[in-house]
Structure formats: C-alpha cells, structure tokens
What does this fold into?
Amino acid sequence: MVGFFSALRYWHWLLLAVLAGVALLATEILVKHEQQLTRSQQLRHEVASAGQLKAMLESELNIPLYLTVGLASYIKASGGEIDQDELDILLPGLVQQAKHIRNIGVAPGNRLQYIYPLVGNERAINLYYPDLPDQWPAVEEIIRSKQARLVGPVRLVQGGQAFIYRLPLFIPDDTYWGILSTVINIETIWSLLADNAAAQNVTIALRAKVPGKDDYGNTFFGEPGLFYDDSLLLNLAIRGADWQMAIRATEPVLNRGVLLRVSLFTATLCLLILLAWLFYSRQQLRQTANELSHSESYLRAVMNNVRDAIVVTSDDGIIEDANVSCFRLYGYPSGSLKGLHWSMLLATPQNIDEIYSATSAPDQVFEGQGLRQDSSQFELSLTRSRLVQGKQQHQLMLIRDITERKRVEKLKNDFVATVSHELRTPLTAINGALSLAIGGALGDINHSAQKMLTMAHSSCGQLNQLINDLLDTERLASGKMRFSISPVALVPLLEQNITQIAAMQHKQRLVIVQDNEKPFQVMADKGRLSQVCLNLLSNAVKFSPDDSVVEIKLSEHDKMIRVSVIDQGKGVSGEFLPHLFQRFAQAENHASRQHAGTGLGLAISKAIIEQMDGKIGYQRLAQGSCFYFELPATGVLTD
It folds into this structure.
C-alpha cells in the first residue's frame, strides 16, 4: 500500500477527495431523509401493535389476579376459617374463568395445605415457604409490605416454570393469616404473546422492575437488546407487577438509502479498488517472498537445534532433507544423505515393511538398531508421521538414540533381579524360623511374644510376596517366564482360591455365579492362572465394604470364557484408568493408602493373561467395580 500512496499525484488526490466529498454529502442527506421516513412508518405500526399486545397481555394476566383477590375476600369473610369442601366447589369455577391458571394454592401459616387442581402438583402439598431459600426472601418481603406481587419466572417444586401471584392475607384484626398463590402457566402466555406478535409482524421483549429500586432486572421474554436500541417502550398495568414492554417491527419498510449510497459510490470505489489492487499485489508479492525466506530460516534453525534426528522423505522413502543432529548421529557429512533411501539408516533395512506397519499411527514407536556410516550399530526409537503439501505427500521420521536408556533399563532390571534373589535366601530362613517358633518348636511362648511372632511372620509373608512380584515382573519383561498350557477347569480352581482368600479372615463373602451348572474349562497355565485369580480376588475383598458380597461370574461367548470379579467398592477414578495396568501404578486416594502395595499385581496379571492368548480389562459399574479376564475355551465339561 505504501507504493500505491506514493504513486498518486497531488491533483489525483484532490479530484478523488472532491468527488468523494460531494458524493458523501449528497448521499448522507438523502439517506437521512429516507431513514426518518422509514422510522416514522415503523413507529406508527409499532404504536398500533403495541396497544393491542399491551391490552391482551394485561387482560390475560389481570383476570387470574382478580380471581385471587376474590378468593382472599371469601377467606376474610369466613374469618380465616377454610372449608375444604367449599374450596372444592369454589376453586374449580375460578380456574375455569382464567385459562392460564395452572393451579391455585392456599397456604395458611406459610404452609401450602390446599392446591387445585391436585393432579400434577402433589409434590407441592405441605410445602413450607421458609424452607425454600430461593423463594422465601421474596415471600417474606411481600408479607412485610402487605402488598400482593406477581413474581417470576419461578422454578416450581413440582417441575416447570411459571409466574406466581402471591397475595398476603390478613384477617380483620390485622393478624397475618397466610399466603394465597395463583400459579400462571408461563408457556401458554408466552405462546399466545408470541403468536400475536408474529401476527402483528413485531418482536417484543419484557422485563420487570427490581423491587425497591428504580432499575429494571433481566429480560425474561424476548431479546434483551430491544431495550437498548430505538424500540418503542411501554409500561404495563398489571396488578402486583411493574413490567415494561419493548416492541419493534420485524419487517421494516425498505430502506432505499442503502441502495442510493451503493449506487453513487460504486463507480468511484471500483476505480480505487483497481488502482489499489495493482500496487497492493506488487507489495504483497515482495512481502510474501521475505516471509517465506524468514520461515525457511526459522524452520531450519529449529530443526538443527533439535537433539533428535529428523529426516524428511518422499512418499516412496527417498530422503529429501535432514537436520544437523541426523548427520551428527550417523556420522555422515552434511548434505550427503539427500537422494538416498532412508532404510540405509537401519541395521536391518529388509524389515522396512514391518517398520511401516509398526509406525502406522503418529503415536506408535518402533525400536530397533541403527547403522552409522562406520558400520557401528546403536539402539534407536523411531516415530513416523505423514505430511501433505498440496498434492505431494511426504514422511517425517523422528529418530532418537536410546542406547543409554536401554543400558539403564538393563542395569535396573539386573539390579532388581539380583536384589530379589539375594533377599529370598535369608527371607526363607527367617520365615521358617518364625513358623517353627509359632508352631511351638521352641516350647511354650507367652501371649505377647506369640502375638509379636505372628506379626513378624505375616510381614515376612508380605515381603516374600513383594519379592515374588518383582521377580515375576523381571521374568515377564525379559521373556524368561515359562508357561505350561493345558486344559484347566475353572470352577475347582476358583473354589480353591476362595478357600485361600477365606483363610485371610476377610469379612466379605465370595460367591461363584455361572450361566449354567457345569464348570468351564480353559487353555492356560494352572499355576499362573491361580496367581491371577488370587490377585483379583484379593483386590476385590481389600476394597469392598465389610459384609458385602464379591461375585465371581463365569460366562462364555465367541469361544472365549470370561471370569468377572465384581465387588461393591468405590471403583477406580476416571483419571487413573489409563494407568490401571501399568507397573508400580497406584491411585492417590484414601483406600489405596489403607491397602498399600507395590502396584505390580495388575501389571503382572495383564502380562500373564496376554501370554496365554487372553485379555484382561476393567468395567466401572453403577455400584462397584468389575475386573475381568478372558481365555480361550476348550469346551464345557460334561458330568
């Protein structure tokens, strides 16, 4: 745009300014006159429509209110004594006279004792107004002022919204007697008002004055914006309410000023746009070139400062670009990889299809061996994502050297395995000695010593289980755990597990539930399957309330047998679910602190079940949790 302004001469600017000024002045004079004429026509239409809508709304709302006043006169005449039989005769006639009345309520002493009609309003019977924190302040103010008020919209206890005309009643000696309330159906009134407004081709809005203030509250019908433009405003004469109506025509008279303005300026605007576009295009072209150069420099700087290797290839795997870290990691001279296939960066390039399959999604990671220029190999992790530019497709490879991470993981696993094995020998001796002492091998032991030895024996068992879990985790991670797969009858196995759990003196009751009375048979390693079942049952009784029932449900579908352990505990929180079967994962809550563990049980169970061609999962129930696993069935055993 700078080039455009500098290219125009002085007399060009002067001529354009004069033409624009004359056109603007003439247009604004004509447009102003047109707007005044249009507004005058709108106003006449709005005044006529407002009168009809105002009269209709006042009539529809005041009729129920006057009927309420009549009911108040009847109660005053009877000295505050109400006869339900008489009300059963009187109120139906009052309700029939006003079609918008939803119900009429009588509340002596602020307690709603009578409602007509009762059907649909049963929940409001015996309603005590002081118990309604959202309504009582308004009711209390009505009683204090001794003035009837139309309030609303109010959310009703029996459901829905309505206007309520509340009339405080004082018997002749000026003693407060109670409240008469007439509930007016808000939907029918709004529907009638909307239909009439649509028939008049106007749009309206309603708002009420805030009690005790000169200001108005929120708009409860129509668009609030009507009160803040040039709409016609009227005050409504409704008993017990200070309402204001805003009304505006929905179909204004055609404003020809816009057409006039557009016509006068079209020619001048077209000329200005044409000239501006020529110079603007030139400037944009120059600016785009500069921005492209800057973006390329910025992107190159970002890529070169990333520690991981970044490789961009064509859709068929030919390297198009690579960052500095890639050349540094593989030992190639800068720029020497362009035009080569990226599989040369792998120690096993023949597995390229396997790598593509393993990294089909951006969040999937492939781990393998990389090959440097000097033929040395290293551990790498690789992620792949697709880039689309126009009609061309590219691949983005992110390669990370994980040699050090693998070394640390191996050291950690070796350390865990070594420590666990070294602990088992002295722990076995301690456990045996404690068992002999508790069994009386050392002679009679006093009660306090017996109790301390029992606690030590129990803790020794827990420590032994911890070591077993650590060893199982190490074996599963290294693939050293052996499985002997054979047919296993589930029901006898589960009954044996229940007996073991019952020996722990838990207060929960464990029950087996079957689709039929025949035990099921699966292909599994019996010892490892028993380990999984004991872990799930132990967790269920730990986190279940005392005296509750833990169900072990057996079912069969799609040649798989499912074992579901259903407890009545609090369940697993939603934020912890993604980590439920991870190693060392424990939920941060009170229950988990009470039953602290290693966080390895579920991870071990998941790995064992998957090694036996099954799957394990969790379902949150309305009351409790359900942990389940599925294993291949060998058929249903027959008697």
Q: What stands out?
A: The longest helix spans residues 10-77. The chain has 14 helices and 21 strands. The chain has a mean pLDDT of 79. The two ends are 94 Å apart (CA to CA).
